[in-house]
TrEMBL record:
<dbReference type="GO" id="GO:0006313">
    <property type="term" value="P:DNA transposition"/>
</dbReference>
<dbReference type="InterPro" id="IPR057667">
    <property type="entry name" value="HTH_SB"/>
</dbReference>
<feature type="domain" description="Tc1-like transposase DDE">
    <location>
        <begin position="149"/>
        <end position="296"/>
    </location>
</feature>
<dbReference type="GO" id="GO:0003677">
    <property type="term" value="F:DNA binding"/>
</dbReference>
<feature type="domain" description="Transposase Tc1-like">
    <location>
        <begin position="74"/>
        <end position="139"/>
    </location>
</feature>
<dbReference type="InterPro" id="IPR047655">
    <property type="entry name" value="Transpos_IS630-like"/>
</dbReference>
<dbReference type="GO" id="GO:0015074">
    <property type="term" value="P:DNA integration"/>
</dbReference>
<dbReference type="InterPro" id="IPR038717">
    <property type="entry name" value="Tc1-like_DDE_dom"/>
</dbReference>
<dbReference type="Pfam" id="PF13358">
    <property type="entry name" value="DDE_3"/>
</dbReference>
<dbReference type="InterPro" id="IPR036397">
    <property type="entry name" value="RNaseH_sf"/>
</dbReference>
<dbReference type="Pfam" id="PF01498">
    <property type="entry name" value="HTH_Tnp_Tc3_2"/>
</dbReference>
<feature type="domain" description="Sleeping Beauty transposase HTH">
    <location>
        <begin position="1"/>
        <end position="51"/>
    </location>
</feature>
<dbReference type="InterPro" id="IPR052338">
    <property type="entry name" value="Transposase_5"/>
</dbReference>
<dbReference type="InterPro" id="IPR009057">
    <property type="entry name" value="Homeodomain-like_sf"/>
</dbReference>
<dbReference type="InterPro" id="IPR002492">
    <property type="entry name" value="Transposase_Tc1-like"/>
</dbReference>
<dbReference type="InterPro" id="IPR036388">
    <property type="entry name" value="WH-like_DNA-bd_sf"/>
</dbReference>
<protein>
    <recommendedName>
        <fullName>Tc1-like transposase DDE domain-containing protein</fullName>
    </recommendedName>
</protein>
Amino acid sequence: MKNKEHTRQVRDTVVKKFKAGFGYKKISQALNIPRSTVQAIILKWKEYQTTANLPRPGRPSKLSAHARRRLRCRDAAKRPMITLDELQRSTAEVGDSVHRTTISRILHKSGLYGRVARRKPFLKDIHKKCCLKFATSHLGDTPNMWKKVLWSDETKIELFGNNAKRYVWRKSNTAEHTIPTVKHGGGSIMVWACFSSAGTGKMVKIDGKMDGAKYRTILEENLMESAKDLRLGRRFVFQQDNDPKHKAKSTMEWFKNKHIQVLEWPSQRPDLNPIENLWKELKTAVHKCSPSNLTELELFCKEEWEKMSVSRCAKLIETYPKRLTAVIAAKGGATKYFQFSIC
């Protein structure tokens, strides 16, 4: 705790004894105050010729200089992934109860800012060209065309949210931090799902390793039913990425036999798929449910997927041309939408 300030009378007595020839040690013993305090009072008197409180630039800090150094050097600098809540608790444990914004302000003054810990996307030139071609060729498509698309994807969801976005404390122009993986961290599940501008379709947990046969079974049992539930009609367009099991000859023949049009898709560009936004929101929502086992994880995933609002789905499709425009502006390179596909 920060020590209470001594009264003006005490400070005047210190100066009076100093003028009388007493040393720091004797003054300290006579007044029962620390020698360092005596020294500070005398130094201030020598510099300003007064023991009165001088005008201050603002409200005194609730944290002592030592506590501020501890925040900057021991906590945030050595543990860059520590959260504001954890910093707040650690200061409270030593008797300094302050608000989160106070802690944030102290770190900002030291040049430490919260930054997302993530890896930078890497795109080969051939992938950029394919993506640019896709964006250019579809930029003029009508809104009704995109409303007829049934978007799909698979994703892994961790039991304890290891894939969640994390923030770290670091100074500007310093190396980015990566999020370490935890061995045997509790497990995960793989799910397949689809959606359109009319809402979310079916979600299926993938048991075991996904192969072409298992993928076709998922399509057989869920694709047409999802299209029917979302009232896409018979002439809808199905979107999938270029995973080998998706592009297998037998899988493409299945689409042909079912008279399903498949959208041509560029390689290595998950950020073009708006379902990535929903994956991010789903993982955040499921993590807040705090599942304790894989059974609960699957249950919460399906419940939260069904809760996704139709308006949210419609908005993603309504703004899809902006996504294409961003890709064209980046000449096929990474856009801001990459944050959803790599977090």
